[in-house]
Amino acid sequence: MHIKSLLFNKGDSVITVEPDRSVADAARSLAVHRVGALVVSADGDHIDGILSERDITWAVGNRGPAALDMLVRELMTREVTTCSPDDTTDHLMQVMTQRRIRHIPVVADGCLCGVVSIGDVVKHRLAELETEAGTLHEYLNAGR
After folding, report:
1. How many domains are there within the chain?
2. Tell me, what CATH number does 84's domain have?
3. SS (H, E, C) 82-111
4. 0.70 cut: is pTM over it?
5. Which segments within 1-144 are labelled E, that is strand?
C-alpha cells in the first residue's frame, strides 16, 4: 500500500508547533491531541524539525523541570526523516525500524501533507495479515 492510501484512510491532519513555543506548551499539545510527536513548523507547511514525547522525557530526565522552560527549537530534532505519498508502507516500515523512529512526516511538492506513525503502519500490516488469513481459510474450506 502507498502512503497516500494510508493517509486517505487515516486522515491528513498534522499537529504542528512553532519553534519559539515552550517545551511545556508542546507537551500540553501532545497531551491534548493524544499524539506522540509534533512537527515543528513556523508556517505550518514547511518542516523545521520534529519533537517527540521521548525528546521531552529525556530532557526532563537530564535537566529536570527547567527543560519545560526551554524553547522547542532548542530540543527538536532538526534533521527529519520524511517520506513521499508515493512511498510504500513496506518501505516506511524498514526505514522506521532501521532508524528507530516512530513518526515520519509526509511531504509532497516541498509541503507537509501528513504524518505516519509506527502505529499506523502496524495497524495496516495487521489488516493485511487478517485479510490473507481469511482468504486462506476460505480457500482451504472450499475444497471440503
Report:
1. 1
2. 3.10.580.10
3. CECCCCEHHHHHHHHHHHCCCEEEEEECCE
4. yes
5. 16-17, 37-40, 49-52, 103-108, 111-117
